[in-house]
């Protein structure tokens, strides 16, 4: 069950209680959602998150487009009516009685520790893939299976590997690799187009760092100089090891530059 932490929540722009929210979530068959980070009570990259949500709706066959100003007003109402300063908002969309339902609520949120940023994280590879990588759709069985593997291996994240041995993305993140001074990541068509991923690509290219999008075979992992994952909660998080392959990502200048550029871009949203 989704761990809702807000007592006051939103349905289609108006406030509802946590109990009413849970009753509605039980009727959610679409499982299309979005997660927005809030820092100092300000939503981060709100426009980009709405664009991705609308893209998920379009790719899922829904003839619905959420309008930015109404979406923004609902997010701001949720923030104003709750005490959370730094937490994640989850947005759920589904159809009830032939009418669209947009729910907004704060969920229990966890972020990487300072030690993880300092030392890097341990990541495993798994031969799994999502049904439609471009849609942010919650697949319960897949998520439970991945979480079990993470727990058994003491890993922070899992990199998903397709049947043809190509890398796609992390189970809850996107992944980048460093080759010399260049970043390498999977093609847009084969991953969830993460908002953080898009911002990292944007700021890196703007500052002279080449980003190559292509198919990446799992056999290439030993050849890379470093790696990191990106995500709403993770920012740019260096990878210490993938399975038994060790990287010195925390000391890699390209990884550190990508992190610095992204944090500076994110800071524009709340300062």
Note down, in words, how this protein is organized.
With 271 residues, the protein is of the alpha+beta class. Helices cover 31% and strands 31% of the residues. The chain has seven helices and 16 strands. Strands 7, 8, 9, 10, 11, 12, 13, 14, 15 and 16 form a ten-stranded mixed sheet that branches. Strands 2-1-6-5-3-4 form a six-stranded antiparallel sheet. Strand 14 (226-231) and strand 15 (235-242) form a beta hairpin.
Q: Helix/strand-derived class?
A: alpha+beta
Distance between the termini: 34 Å
N-to-C SSE series?
EEHEEHHEEHEHEEEEHEEEEEH
Residue share in β-strands: 25-35%
Portion of residues within helices:
25-40%
Q: What gross morphology would you assign?
A: globular
Q: Quick check: average pLDDT?
A: 95
Number of H- or I-type helical stretches:
7
C-alpha-based Rg, rounded:
19 Å
* Main sheet: strands, sense, barrel: 10 strands, mixed
**Number of beta strands:** 16
Low-pLDDT sequence parts: none
């Amino acid at each position: 069950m989704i761990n809702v932490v807000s007592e006051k929540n939103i349905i289609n722009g108006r406030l509802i209680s946590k109990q009413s929210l849970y009753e509605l979530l039980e009727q959610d068959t679409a499982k299309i959602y979005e997660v927005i980070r809030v820092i100092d009570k300000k939503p981060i990259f709100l426009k980009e998150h709405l664009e991705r949500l609308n893209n998920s709706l379009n790719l899922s066959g829904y003839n619905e487009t959420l309008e930015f100003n109404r979406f923004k007003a609902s997010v701001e109402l949720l923030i104003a009516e709750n005490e959370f300063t730094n937490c994640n908002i989850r947005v759920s969309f589904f159809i009830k009685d032939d009418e669209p339902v947009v729910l907004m609520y704060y969920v229990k949120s966890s972020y990487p520790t300072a030690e993880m940023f300092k030392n890097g994280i341990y990541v495993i590879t798994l031969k799994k893939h999502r049904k439609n990588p471009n849609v942010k759709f919650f697949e319960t069985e897949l998520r439970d299976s991945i979480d079990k593997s993470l727990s058994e291996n003491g890993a922070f994240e899992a990199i998903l590997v397709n049947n043809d041995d190509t890398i796609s993305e992390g189970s809850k993140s996107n992944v980048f690799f460093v080759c010399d001074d260049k970043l390498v990541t999977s093609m847009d068509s084969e991953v969830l187009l993460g908002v953080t991923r898009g911002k990292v690509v944007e700021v890196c290219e703007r500052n002279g760092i080449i980003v190559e999008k292509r198919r990446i075979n799992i056999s290439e992992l030993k050849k890379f100089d470093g790696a990191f994952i990106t995500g709403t909660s993770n920012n740019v998080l260096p990878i210490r090891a993938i399975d038994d392959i060790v990287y010195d990502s925390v000391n890699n200048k390209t990884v550190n530059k990508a992190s610095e550029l992204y944090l500076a871009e994110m800071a524009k949203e709340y300062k």
